[in-house]
Amino acid sequence: xxxxxxxxxxxxxxxxxxxxxxxxxxxxxxxxxxxxxxxxxxxxxxxxxxxxxxxxxxxxxxxxxxxxxxxxxxxxxxxxxxxxxxxxxxxxxxxxxxxxxxxxxxxxxxxxxxxxxxxxxxxxxxxxxxxxxxxxxxxxxxxxxxxxxxxxxxxxxxxxxxxxxxxxxxxxxxxxxxxxxxxxxxxxxxxxxxxxxxxxxxxxxxxxxxxxxxxxxxxxxxxxxxxxxxxxxxxxxxxxxxxxxxxxxxxxxxxxxxxxxxxxxxxxxxxxxxxxxxxxxxxxxxxxxxxxxxxxxxxxxxxxxxxxxxxxxxxxxxxxxxxxxxxxxxxxxxxxxxxxxxxxxxxxxxxxxxxxxxxxxxxxxxxxxx
Length: 370
Prior knowledge:
Blueprint: E1 2-10, H1 18-30, E2 35-41, E3 49-52, E4 55-60, H2 65-77, E5 83-87, H3 90-99, E6 105-109, H4 119-126, E7 130-133, H5 136-145, E8 154-156, H6 171-180, E9 187-192, H7 201-212, E10 217-222, H8 227-240, E11 243-248, H9 252-260, E12 264-267, H10 277-284, E13 289-292, E14 308-310, H11 316-328, H12 330-347, H13 350-369
Parallel strand pairs: 1-2, 1-5, 2-4, 5-6, 6-7, 7-8, 9-10, 9-12, 10-11, 12-13, 13-14
Antiparallel strand pairs: 3-4
Helix pairs in contact: 1-13, 2-3, 3-4, 7-8, 7-11, 11-12
């Protein structure tokens, strides 16, 4: 099968774009069995076309969304694809579907960000042969927001991690990594993600302040952050007397090393998370995970079994209590971390994701061609 995947942004995206991380992983696994063309926006310093085995990268002019859409339509019309997948852009997907009458077109939604409740969005979604979502939580939200869509068009495909790269580190390697990041020897708590208000870093700093009353601990924050917000967070950390390292954006090719340097991972999201890929990556590295009980995170973590879910996640105290329990009981932390790794191995490998997508692609081809 010749599969075309249309990315919404530059590829690879500078920094830590989760959608592009997913596209990259999925495309590379699919290319082991299929011809895959990955279309993205033109990026400075990267060629307009490149090939890695059966994976072809095509970067098109994209000075504006309208120009990118026009570039995509002109390109795909001259190709012979068996299926086209558009990621996270319903309007672009609808335009592609309107241009390619006899080719199945599927939409892979990673969040609600680009599906505002409007008639225009509803019309765009209706054009997809299938709509793929990364969690049951996102499936339910889309179905509620667009009741005329019909749940039969929505298919759930969980995301994954590279389980050969995201692995637990032995004690010596962990110490070496901590030294390389200049981290202290105290209990180390990690946050990875975009550092924006909805991700809950201020609440985590307050939870760390409560933890520090009982034992010394250090917080590591890795992710893109705008300077004004970073200054606010640093002021809060100083006020709360919390030891914290703000590392900025860490490339995804390196991020596994940071997980391997930590004792615990916390995802204190204050709003709906469609999936929560960072939790899977942390669990794959054998870290005990403490996360807000919302969205697709609940489909990854079974509280008390392979991690902990915080129901009252707008308060710092429940996070602090779980952190203290793990810091005081290394055996508990190791058991939870090991179970998390085991469960991820069984359910959240990119190969599982690719296999589920292949089944949907085959159904879409049959649906269109009969």
